[in-house]
């Protein structure tokens, strides 16, 4: 029975110790999670876990506070521990608020600076646009003047060309008239020369007909013609079909 009781007590004690360790782990986890929400940096000192004085204080705390239920009910009237001082959290929050306000002031100052720069840039842009419009206006006026000058020069050139064309037309008309007159005179001269040539040929022919060689040649041709006629008659007599 003692052996069984020893095994049971050992199991119960082991279970309680395990549950206590797990409970402590969960408690520490909650504390660390809450500390992380407030940006707290917790540090642990393992050496203090072996501090005998602190361990005795914990044992004394267990003796005085964790007693029998009757004793605990009697001691409920005792003043409880005061809550932890939240000055550290408030100070941290105040520091964070101060930091955020400083950043906000810096951002506001930067925003004002950017607004000033933007306004100056807008003014410069407006001035540049005005200068560009004035420059475009001046350029357009110069272009109009240049175009008007070009148009005037072109009109002068056209007028000069028109005068040259009219002069050339009048000169061509005069030259054409002179050419026609020259052509008519040339035709008359040609006809006169042709007439003179005809007369000269006739005279040459008369003179040639009056020569002895012409008369002899004419007699020979006459005889030859008579001989050809006689030969044709004979051929028709012997070869009438052909």
Low-confidence runs of at least 5 consecutive residues = 78-86
Q: Tell me the distance between the termini.
A: 182 Å
How large a portion of the residues is in β-strands, by DSSP E?
A: under 5%
Overall, the morphology is elongated
Number of helices: 5
> Helical content, roughly?
over 70%
Mean pLDDT: 79
The helix/strand series, from N terminus to C terminus, equals HHHHH
Family: Belongs to the LZTFL1 family.
Subcellular location: Cytoplasm
GO cellular component, one term: cytoplasm
Function: Regulates ciliary localization of the BBSome complex. Together with the BBSome complex, controls SMO ciliary trafficking and contributes to the sonic hedgehog (SHH) pathway regulation. May play a role in neurite outgrowth. May have tumor suppressor function.
């Amino acid at each position: 029975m003692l052996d069984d009781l020893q095994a049971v007590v050992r199991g119960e004690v082991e279970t309680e110790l395990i549950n206590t360790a797990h409970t402590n782990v969960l408690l520490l986890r909650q504390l660390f999670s809450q500390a992380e929400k407030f940006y707290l940096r917790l540090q642990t000192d393992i050496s203090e876990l072996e501090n005998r004085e602190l361990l005795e204080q914990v044992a004394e705390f267990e003796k005085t506070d964790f007693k029998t239920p009757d004793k605990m009910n009697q001691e409920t009237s005792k003043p409880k521990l005061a809550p932890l001082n939240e000055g550290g959290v408030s100070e941290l929050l105040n520091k964070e608020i101060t930091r955020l306000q400083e950043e906000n002031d810096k951002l506001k100052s930067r925003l004002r600076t950017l607004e000033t720069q933007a306004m100056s840039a807008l003014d410069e842009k407006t001035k540049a646009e005005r200068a560009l419009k004035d420059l475009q206006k001046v350029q357009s006026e110069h272009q109009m003047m240049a175009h008007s000058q070009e148009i005037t020069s072109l009109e002068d050139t056209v007028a000069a060309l028109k005068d040259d064309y009219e002069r050339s037309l009048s000169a061509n008309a005069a030259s054409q008239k002179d050419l026609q007159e020259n052509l008519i005179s040339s035709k008359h001269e040609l006809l006169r020369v042709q007439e003179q040539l005809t007369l000269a040929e006739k005279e040459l022919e008369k003179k040639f007909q009056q020569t002895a060689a012409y008369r002899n040649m004419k007699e020979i041709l006459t005889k030859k013609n008579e001989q050809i006629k006689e030969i044709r008659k004979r051929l028709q007599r012997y070869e009438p079909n052909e």
